[in-house]
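Record now logged for everyone:
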Amino acid sequence: MCGIVGIVGTTPVNQALYDALTVLQHRGQDAAGIVTIDDGNFKQRKANGLVKDVFESRHMQRLKGNMGIGHVRYPTAGSSSAAEAQPFYVNSPFGITLAHNGNLTNALALRNELENNGSVFQTTMDSEVIVNMIARSKAASTEERIIEAVKRIEGAFSLVV
């Protein structure tokens, strides 16, 4: 069980994301993370701990942008390592960030396929499988890449990308 949120606004969304994660804190107390986009640049802060402990004023000031996603984690798979805090980010072949809640029943098979095709994983998380599927897709648009990945995933899940 985790909590995820995505916000697109006309003004900075960092405080709204923080507030949303605070309200979602009951969905996960292990880790928290926010990624925002400012002028095409991703700004990220994630770490183990409660929302109020992960985000200090200096972090919030850096998380500028009118679009962003957030995540609070309660681990049901993987470990409690800070490396497994979300959202996940992949910069190649283009920047994409993803937060996930759920369980993929075919994650191991998809991961093995991705590794056989050159993907390198930093964690044991289902979420990293999904973000790598999107990043490695040959589809023309980001939306098509996401749809292609979701069609191959089995299990129950929610995503913000």
In short: The first helix runs from residue 14 to 23. The chain has a mean pLDDT of 92. The chain has six helices and seven strands.
